[in-house]
Amino acid sequence: MKFAALSVRKRYMQERDDIDQVAKLLLSGGIICYPTDTIWGIGCDVRRTDAIERINKLKGRPPGKAYVLLVSSIDMLKDYVKTLHPRIETLLNYHQRPLTIIYPEARNLPPEAVAPDGSVAIRVTRSRLCRELIEAIGAPLVSTSANVSGQPYPKNFGEISSEIIENVDYVSKENRWDLSDAQPSTIAIATENGILEFVRP
What we know:
The protein contains 7 helices and 9 strands, in the order H-H-E-E-H-E-H-H-E-E-H-E-H-E-E-E.
């Protein structure tokens, strides 16, 4: 029985999502629960404001509160921020931990994805799964922790509540067996002169 259990675990650890299938779901306005390069998240195609509204309701978040966006590359990042200081671009290439940066001026994004002051929080993701999904839909992914607002964020798949699992359109198959404690990203605010002010180390 022990060997059978190990065999089942190994099979699930090797399972991967059908990127084309998940991309079609996202493009049609679906919301997903998926592992990022930090913690498990809830996400959607940033262009689908109807999906963003669904995430707001599921999490119990007030409208107007912006989310983190994931992009697949620095080149993609440049499509959604007005300016990217060379100093910050260099840092993004070498920073060891996942780094979310709040940029003062967003562009090419719906109002629902941008903070009231026009700023936007974006991370160049290191997750293979996230990069493949982003490239498949041709747009950033909305990313927010897979929990109801006010509740602790899940450190692994096993800590995600049934309320979340049952109310998204798709749950990723990947990383479900990883029980290590995941941590949120570092967060910093970008200033006009290319200096970062860290708000979460």
